[in-house]
Amino acid sequence: MIRIQFRFFFITVAPGTKFSFAVGWRSSNSALTEEEIRLRTMAENWLKDGLTLLGVGSKTSAGYGLFFSEHGAEVSKKIEEKESLPPIPSAPIIQKQGRISSIRPDLKSGRVQDDNGVEYTFNTEVLSPKGWTPARRTPVKFDIQGERVIRITK
């Protein structure tokens, strides 16, 4: 019996590497209006909070992809006090009907196709009721938010 071992390497950036991000504004005027300044500031804050609180890329739950601001104490305070961040606009929830096109409970994933033939991938955690495993071609109702399936029911 031959055993083949595979090593997986992840591209990482050395700790302490400095990054610079720019938030710009395109305007026909050289001077920004108060509303444009307010919106630019909001975008800057969302970028800072997203990078420092949520991170970027895969393995963020293991600590990879998190950014630390030069104003680290300010961010730490937000985390400790669970200060509410400005609301990020979310996509509306859309209800659809379709059929299960494939399901792999062992991989906790599946695909559902709506009545127009558009296919969406889902995690089996969204199946309702819990523990239900629909067969292939089972008619279902499902909710999507953006491109993400958030619930599938009988």
Give a quick precis of the structure:
The chain is 20% helix and 25% strand.
Describe this structure in words.
The chain is of the alpha+beta class and 154 residues long. The chain has two domains: 17-89, no CATH class; 93-153, Nucleic acid-binding proteins (OB fold (Dihydrolipoamide Acetyltransferase, E2P)). It has two helices and six strands; from the N terminus they run ααββββββ. It has a six-stranded mixed sheet with strand order 3-2-1-5-6-4, with no helix packed on it.
Estimated structural class: alpha+beta
Mean pLDDT: 79
Overall shape? flat
Number of strands: 6
Q: Terminal Cα separation, in Å?
A: 47 Å
- Ranges where pLDDT stays below 50 over 5 or more residues in a row are none
The percentage of residues in β strands lies in 15-25%
The number of helices is 2
Helical proportion? 10-25%
Number of domains: 2
SSE pattern, N- to C-terminal? HHEEEEEE
Radius of gyration: 22 Å
Strand order of the largest sheet: 3-2-1-5-6-4
Major sheet details: 6 strands, mixed
Which short descriptors sum up this protein?
25% strand, 2 helices, six-stranded mixed sheet, alpha+beta, OB fold (Dihydrolipoamide Acetyltransferase, E2P), 2 domains
